[in-house]
Specification:
Helix content is 35%, strand content 36%. The protein is an alpha+beta fold. The protein has one domain: Nuclear Transport Factor 2, Chain: A. The chain has a 6-stranded mixed sheet. The radius of gyration is 15 Å and the shape is globular.
Amino acid sequence: MSTMTNQSAAYEVMRRVFAEGFATGNADLVDELFAPDLVEHQFGLTGSGADAIQHVKDAIRNVYEIMPNATLTIEDSVEDGDKIWTRVRGRGIAAGPFFGPPSNRPLDFTVIDVSRIVDGRIVEHWGVPDRFAILAQTGAPDRLAQ
């Protein structure tokens, strides 16, 4: 079931995480949209409570530093109980440093997210950004091979 035409409260939370958080670098949004006892499962961000909250804030700042002109749009979503699955498309220019100086190359990648949302806040999260697509599109493997 796509919620594109009938957006739920969970969909709105996820939309804000991407459009108002990651796309703008606004890490303060985490305090509003994530529960203080968050359990984070995403590779590189794992943790719980204050550690998880800090990891998500750092990730938002990091994505914005790499791609300050990003758009992150939910293209598909499905909900079941308190869980929402989203497929997000990220686009922008690699205008910030990423395994070397900025490449200024266009980026187009996918993120698959599963979040458990209770009372309007993310309490548990699993995320799978297509890191290889980002690496390949910035030219990082070529720079690392040298």
